[in-house]
Automatic annotation (TrEMBL):
SUPFAM superfamilies: Metallo-hydrolase/oxidoreductase. This is Metal-dependent hydrolase. It comes from Candidatus Methanofastidiosum methylothiophilum. InterPro entries: RibonucZ/Hydroxyglut_hydro.
């Protein structure tokens, strides 16, 4: 599941997903993997990696941050290749 999570936990504004919203959605849908994208300025300030871990730890769902070069394959079985930093 790909989610546009623009805001960190506790920093809600109208019509923007927060990490808490993402957690709520993921707990209901229960996808194999979650990819957060459209990371906003506030997410960068608070720490996108920490927010990713918060989502992953809260849901038990592998959570990735979309990054240039991230490849997701869905050929009957889901697999992904993260970029090397």
């Amino acid at each position: 599941m790909i989610l546009n999570v623009t805001r960190p936990n506790g920093d809600r504004i109208p019509f923007h997903l927060t990490t808490d919203d993402a957690i709520s959605i993921l707990k209901k849908v229960k996808p194999e993997v979650a990819v957060i994208t459209h990371i906003g300025y506030k997410m960068h300030l608070k720490g996108a990696e920490e927010e990713r871990l918060y989502i992953q730890d809260s849901t038990g769902i592998k959570t990735l941050i979309a990054d240039e070069g991230l490849k997701i394959y869905m050929n009957g079985q889901l697999s992904y290749q993260e970029t090397v930093k």
